[in-house]
């Protein structure tokens, strides 16, 4: 829909004012520009980190897996279990060892306990001790207990004191049974495990059986030959046993570790763009959130695909069975989808952090948490049948992190490709994993032959689905939180923003309402401004300047006219580019904060800016200039009031989108990617603004030439000087022939030559457009400004041309007198002081004036308008007496804009001091008395002796008036203030 027609030249988008490109075209142009000119090029310029992320990290980790695999196999080969054993050795059962040989046992220790402690058992035990081959067991090393309970109680109360126990069951002298008891704890000595059976269980068993046999033989009058009682064990012969590869277990955690690098790069990339204001700058130029996120996502898709292919290739090069036996597609999709889910997870987390430096710490934290979780995952928790649903919340937590599926999937693939296993085919990605009862397994013999180990609840196919689900969920959450959490300017949307129809229609800023339109002379329509949200501030308490009041009246009349139901557009209306209707901005207003914590940065501004003019907004720090520009450019939503920019309301439905298409902005701080060149910036911003793609390059070249950056156009902006960066920012603002250009302190940091050059560019740019300029350079405002407004403390204090302001607020004329003899290298200080005193006495007598400033070279006087009439005669007298008084030069000028600025700033501070109850400052005199000086007062009287003191005030960084120095009226020596306010 075309809302308003204008006769001015059309912007380079080729569309009439107020027309925004259709979404698909706009999206595609922005998406391709952001992807190709920004994200890909930034990655190419950060070559090292991109190579590490893409190939080096996977290669290093795969290599580590290879090394670990080799080390484990080498250590396995030392064991006879893994060797070719044709005739196994016989291992005799050793005697009962001394408890001292078990390093885990505490002293004093026992070799064994026995129960019950009866004459029968004592006899058997005595024989065991005496006949232990090679070592008679001392009595103190064996202990008897009445029953098993007593023995257990002793062991529990004093653990690790004995290595075994024998519990006899004496039924008759020839019917004696026994139970052996040993420590079941796994014991590991010097890189080998203690074999529990061989160490104590079998020796004890052989000893008991030997002595029982001897006893039974004795009962029958026979004698057992002790040497006949020899027991030994021998293993079966076996071929070489190859172990299963550990790759399946370690590759998941290692790939997770490798991905953390990419994860940190994504978070710091997204957060960094927000932190540096690049995101806001792009939005101000009309960037759609959809194109921003899509370009990041598309880049991640490409990176994930390349990385996954490389991991597959490296795995195959290192000849891992997991890569060779399983279908490549299964591995590729597992790695690919895992990386996408991690990228979406990074987008999601990035919405909570505002500093890129935090991203590294966050990545480290996630890495630790993820690694710990993987230790559990490697044991099959929680995706094995026995654990599922064990603790539902734990299963949910594990289910919400992408690395769970990576580890589970790689474990399955590793097990399926272990020794003797055939691997998993793509077509079996669901079937291989079954959760069957043993009866069902018995009925399905194919399972027993192929995938019998896969009693599981989550197949690879399902893991893919869940990874895709996580990617979608985290991306949607990232988009939602990106809108509802406060952005870098503290702006956010309501949580239900996506339910509002106008969000989907305009994809513009929040809370827009459809406004009624008004017929214009050309038959087109313009939007009626809305003042519905305007709060009533106590403006009456502050005296308003006459010109500001007139401007307000004039703009209010325009508003009344626009608010009428119909009627031709007046000439005045047509001449205006911007009309600001009671614009207000309050910070710190939210449902949790009290009203007292609100800060009014703009307290209701009414003014209009004409076409073909430069409107200069001046004011001390914190006056509200940037906030005004931020409201007019859609960076901040106004808290009250409205503005029409070429007939489009800031807060109408989609109005800001239409305004953006005809607007150029040079923000206060250079918002540039250090890795990109000046030319690339022009291409990105040109496409974001929706310029005709055929024109972008040509126009970029023209503008770069204008700002004298043609030669430096291919240099990265990180190597630009401050002035070059500002010039590039000005060129970007002028891209697309915008109708309204906002320049926020465009010449800050420039040398005088560059500054004058930029002034020329701005002067040229006035034609056919309106320019709003903020600056701290009074000279700049004087040279460029057609109309100048000075703001202070959130209010417009004066408005008009430079001459008008000087006439109204300047103190009249400025006279500078020099008593420094010209051309003399040796200055006679005494003579100089005398001449200076003569000049000062002359001005005191003739005009009653004290110097406003005094340097070595000049004594300056501000001659107020009340004394203007006497000035010609005084100057004639001064000229006549010049020789006598030693005057070398006299200069006369109208007071400068700086003087006007200082006067206004001072007035604003006096009002603020009065409003805040800061009525007086106190000077502590050396004589112990105090001078109470009303804020801004230039003289004070001693409370006892009546001496008059002259006070010099200065404003600090926050604009507050502070006493700088004071001195007695007639004293020439000033005293540095030690005043306390
Ligand atoms: N997002 C914000 N939240 C709270 N206060 C803010 C915010 N932005 C600006 N302000 C306050 O609003 C006031 C006006 O700030 P603004 O940046 O508009 O001043 P300015 O006139 O542009 O000053 P300067 O010349 O230093 O750029 C300041 O007191 C500032 O601290």
- The CATH level-2 architecture of the largest domain is identified as 3-Layer(aba) Sandwich
What would the average pLDDT be, to the nearest integer? 81
State the shape.
elongated
Q: Please list the strands of the largest sheet in the order they lie side by side.
A: 16-17-18-13-19-20
Counting helices, strands and paired strands, the structural category is: alpha+beta
* Low-pLDDT segments: 1-15, 507-525, 971-981
Bound molecules: adenosine-5'-triphosphate
Can you summarize the main beta sheet?
A: 6 strands, mixed
The CATH first-level class of the largest domain comes to: Alpha Beta
Helix content: 40-55%
E-strand count? 30
CATH topology of the largest domain: Rossmann fold
CATH superfamily of the largest domain: P-loop containing nucleotide triphosphate hydrolases
Distance between the termini: 60 Å
| Helical run tally | 31
Q: What kind of oligomer do you see?
A: single chain
Q: What would you report as the Rg, rounded to the nearest angstrom?
A: 45 Å
Percent strand equals: 15-25%
Number of domains: 5
